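Submission checklist for the structure archive. All mandatory fields must be present; incomplete records are returned to the submitter.

[x] Identifier: Lactose phosphotransferase system repressor
[x] Organism: Terracoccus luteus
[x] Residue count: 251
[x] Sequence attached
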Amino acid sequence: MRQHRHLEIVQRLRVHGVSSVDDLARSFGVSASTIRRDLQLLDATGQLVRVNGGAVSPEDADVGRPFAAVAVDHVESKRAVAARAAGLVDDGCTVLLDIGTSTQLLAQQLRGRPITVLTASLAVLDALRDDPVVELVLLGGFVRRPYHSMVGVLTEDALRQVHADLAFLGASGVRADGAVLDTTLVEVPVKRALLGAADRVVLLADEHKFPGTGTLRVCGADALSTVVTNPGADAQTLAVLAENDVEVLTA
């Protein structure tokens, strides 16, 4: 019975792309907790990707601009932000690097440093895999190949098991009220888990993300310790961040 239900869940996601826990529970006549266990198992085996309140097919999880396309956007601004952010890392620190192109550039800046780096980013792995000095810890999860990342319940669970001195967060944009936004559904739960895994959260956001747009809210300004951006970032948004006791650094 359970095996048949699993096959039906996977088939439904292939057809519809996304489904909620409540809809699946009603369709199969089982409890929401039963569906959550089903989704956890299917996520662990790579047959779907769990998101808050439901699941999406792996194919739909990969919808969006691939990493290589995003990586060439405003690269000089991002590189300046990464260089400024690297100065916040002391030797001996444990740091969490988010998924994204800005954190890949930060990883390049951290090469040769006696630190520990935790990440679910395959781009960060590529930047540091041959570094004999950096202690590198790769978090598990479903491999999202077009964006060089790992996502899903295994990644979120791994983040609940670790602790870092600093977490460096990426985002699609920052709203005028200081809210951090992202456009990729499957990455938002990973970003939210990252927020609770460090003493200090540093947002990396070049000036083109102020004020920015995005599909989902990751967090408010109150979850941030520091924002690193460029001199051209929107002054009113930066003022709102400062009013919320967020340190603003420009590169």
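[x] Structure attached
Curator remark: Residues 1-60 form a domain with the Arc Repressor Mutant, subunit A fold (CATH 1.10.10.10). The chain has eleven helices and 15 strands.
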